[in-house]
Amino acid sequence: MLDKDSMKIDGFDDAIIGYGEQYTKQPLLVYSYSRICKILRERDDMTWEEADDFAQFNIVNVWVGKGTPMILYNEYWEGWNDKFWEEMDNREEI
Q1: Residue 76 pLDDT class (50, 70, 90 cuts)
Q2: Does residue 94 register a pLDDT over 50?
Q3: In this predicted model, what pLDDT tens digit does every residue of 7-61 receive, in sequence order?
Q4: N or C: at which end does the chain have fewer Cβ atoms within 10 angstroms?
Q5: DSSP assignment of 30-91, as one string?
Q6: Looking at the whole model, is its pTM more than 0.70?
């Protein structure tokens, strides 16, 4: 299971979707990128585009050692463009 050196992203426990591993490497926590952005949007009152910018700069592009969590770009990976973010801002919440 998870090693004691596996790291968490503070404030984003609800974005954890499991753990992943590679041959000969320690297991790491895996976070959903779309859930990270959703948390930022709801908790910090950001637009989807603001959440994306923040997450890219402050979470995804940060290396804190071999225990750095993995980020899964899942259902929102396709169509990353201005139209996509406009649609995200205009959609109804479920």
Answers
A1: low
A2: no
A3: 999 999 999 999 998 888 889 999 999 899 999 999 999 998 999 999 999 999 9
A4: C
A5: EEEHHHHHHHHHHHS---HHHHHHHHIIIIIT---STTPPEEE--TTSTT-SHHHHHHHHHS
A6: yes
DSSP state of 24: T
Q: What's the token pair of residue 90? A: 């205009």
Residue 51 burial class via C-beta count within 10 angstroms: exposed 0-12, middle 13-18, buried 19 and up: buried
Q: Sheet holding 28-32: strands in order across? A: 16-20, 28-32, 70-72
Amino acid at site 57: F
Q: What six digits make up the tokens of 66?
A: 């071999």
Query: Rounded CA gap, 71 and 31, in Å?
Result: 5
